[in-house]
């Protein structure tokens, strides 16, 4: 697996001082599109990006003109996972995932690039997720000495448990067809916009209150997982990221070598 496929953006990359927002907002016929726009960092989940995305979601949720939200990206990566240079606090990431699930508008993921680690959790939190066949996915946390603790909150209730065990334990890469088979994606196709066209058309035809109440019914089981497990998994994430194994894994990542545990 190449360095670009690991769980996080490289903290050795030069600092980027963004003159523009990290989230680009556009709107068409009641659909608010939020694009993760830090391609030079592979749209890694930094504290800044997580904060801006949370603000954009709040605005969309409160705007009566917005019928649905599309979450997408610029560049070739949807999200590389946690940004090791400017990581969000584990509880901030939990709050973001819960915000997507609780938003009174459907959130639709549109993916045309790679998704790794924490980015997979972001995808799993969305109500509907579609990707092009060029997209790839991996839960790479174990390869740098941590665990997919926080991202498991939306993943466990929504994906095939046997398949999830394989991909969480091995860090293997999977393609869009496999991601759809195990429930990580709703659908995949050669042209993701063609896949999503009838979805967005259907959401535009639905009554806003009916959408909100239907989403509440569909997300109840996921939110039960958050209520039960979020505190413990947040603590686990913080502990593992501070561990000697994580330090070795991240150092190996930066030094372009295998960590010491590889046999």
From TrEMBL:
Superkingdom in the source lineage: Bacteria
Gene3D superfamilies found in the cross-reference section: 3.30.300.220, 3.90.226.20, Lyase 2-enoyl-coa Hydratase, Chain A, domain 2
UniProt cross-references to Pfam families, sorted A to Z: ECH_1
Region (Disordered): 1-20
Protein family (similarity comment): Belongs to the enoyl-CoA hydratase/isomerase family.
Annotated protein name in UniProt: Enoyl-CoA hydratase family protein
Native organism: Streptomyces virens
């Amino acid at each position: 697996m190449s360095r670009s496929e690991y769980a996080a953006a490289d903290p050795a990359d030069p600092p980027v001082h963004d003159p523009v927002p990290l989230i680009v907002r556009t709107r068409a016929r009641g659909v608010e599109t939020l694009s993760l726009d830090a391609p030079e960092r592979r749209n890694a989940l930094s504290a800044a990006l997580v904060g801006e995305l949370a603000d954009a979601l709040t605005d969309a949720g409160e705007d009566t003109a917005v019928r649905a939200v599309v979450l997408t990206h610029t560049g070739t990566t949807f999200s590389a996972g946690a940004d090791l240079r400017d990581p969000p606090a584990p509880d901030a990431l939990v709050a973001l995932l819960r915000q997507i699930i609780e938003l009174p508008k459907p959130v639709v993921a549109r993916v045309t690039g790679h998704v790794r680690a924490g980015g997979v959790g972001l995808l799993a939190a969305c109500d509907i997720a579609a990707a092009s066949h060029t997209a790839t996915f991996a839960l790479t946390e174990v390869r740098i000495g941590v665990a997919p603790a926080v991202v498991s909150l939306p993943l466990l209730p929504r994906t095939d448990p046997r398949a999830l065990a394989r991909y969480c334990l091995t860090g293997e890469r999977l393609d869009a067809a496999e991601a759809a088979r195990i429930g990580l994606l709703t659908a995949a196709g050669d042209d993701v916009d063609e896949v999503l066209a009838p979805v967005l058309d259907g959401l535009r035809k639905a009554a806003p209150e009916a959408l909100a109440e239907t989403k509440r019914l569909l997300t109840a089981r996921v939110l039960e997982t958050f209520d039960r497990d979020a505190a413990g998994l947040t603590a686990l994430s913080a502990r593992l990221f501070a561990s000697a194994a994580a330090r070795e894994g991240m150092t190996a990542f930066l030094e372009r070598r295998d960590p010491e545990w590889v046999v």
